[in-house]
Amino acid sequence: MQKEELILILDFCGQYNQLIARRVRECNVYCEIVRHDISAEEIKSRGAKGVIFTGGPASVYGDNAPKCDPEIFNLGIPVLGICYGMQLMTHTLGGKVERADKREYGEIEVNFSKSVLFDGFTDKNVCLMSHTDYVETLPQGFEKIADTASCPYAAIENKERRFYGIQFHAEVNNTVNGTKIIDNFVKKICGCSGSWEMSSFVKETVKALKEKIGDGKALCALSGGVDSSVAAALLNAAIGENLTCIFVDHGLMRKNEGDEVEEVFGKRFKSKFIRVNAEERFLSRLAGVEDPETKRKIIGEEFINVFEEEAKKIGKVDFLVQGTIYPDVVESGKGIGASIKSHHNVGGLPDHVDFKEIVEPLRDLFKDEVRKVGRELGIPDYLVDRPPFPGPGLAIRVIGDITKEKLDILREADYIFREELERDGINKISNQYFAALTNVKSVGVMGDYRTYDYMIALRAVTTMDFMTATFTRIPYETLERVSSRIVNEVKNVNRVVYDITGKPPATIEYE
Ligand code: XMP
After folding, report:
1. Whose CA is nearest to atom 24 of ligand 1?
2. Inside any domain, residue 49
3. Is the pTM above the cut of 0.90?
């Protein structure tokens, strides 16, 4: 990392902390989230150009309220306190924080005064407020630079010492111009040039991985999905042939997908690549199984079995590579979804593989950042831009029991659907789109003949977080073309329907 461009974000356990990091990086400035009790000395030795205190649930007067090293304020570098961070700064520097009777929450109109923090704005701006405590008396040397109808100090500054506080959350989308406020802080106040790019992240991560792994050996379960592919590509760049990627081809991939993965990782990369063709094994264990959870369980187990068998052939490895990204960390922390479906990520942790440590090089990145890293590393767009694909693959898109014949029908229909959506640019407004093979056969007519064939369901959803979703508004013309191509080009299909259910009550996948 370019040290002169480093911003440190002190973590006071706010729910939007990762978003702050994301916004700073969007300003092309490198940042890291660090513990709130990091010493001033360490901040100095790391050459940070500024620090940001995040929000957090505590009150500065609480018994266990997280504090910062007060010496930070003597380092001569700018500080931006957000919400709790602003209150902590006020409290530490001799101002007064009070508890309001009522929480101020929501998108609230804030009146801005002139300040470099708000350069380029008008004097009114809608911001997301979420606080109960508020700053009542300013510390010496501070001035008000914003207020709301009920909050006397919505933003404050000590221009001379370059200390800034905002009571609202500039990092969330609901705050209009939020990123610009952060941009003003990191560039105009901290003096960062904004020259950091994903290429720097790649360079630094590869360097750090090299140092960490040295001559050790690493193993990666490659699923062909974006995350494990990009994690593998980073390790490939760092340690080359000391990385072995095992790609368990369970025969439940989409059309051409297995070959595409092999083409990239087997041919273009230095690391070792093992493709295990385990289709028969999976299909024979799945034969006749109709229950969705049983299917998922079998696939999860069989995946681990195959992976372990292959890993054992390699012998002892030092590191196991995981493509965990930040939303996974948040999601597993909250345990969301666990009670609805037993989500399985190919690449889940096997019990019997002997390794020393897990490496998760993408742990702090959001999906779009992961895609950028992938592009930097030369992974082709068709892999990097893929919509999410579940670990159990097409098995949970064939409703009921699975056969090779059904999978082949689905692969063809799904391919046509995706091709047509991409052709019409619908992939820009839909976050996940696929076909499913329903367990329904119905009567149709082809030429002069009666048919009795499968019904394909098309599903396309628009969503921010995959926790809730609405169906994507696909134009009728596109749907018509898809339907006509599928019934004409895919044998054993005579009916196509479009699923217009939201999540909830439906889930995105069918099983
Ligand atoms: P649902 O069906 O729960 O899906 O609404 C939400 C998102 O999760 C994906 N999904 C999975 N991903 N392993 C995965 O890696 C799984 O077992 C799994 N099940 C669902 C789904 O594709 C959607 O993006």
Report:
1. 388
2. yes
3. no
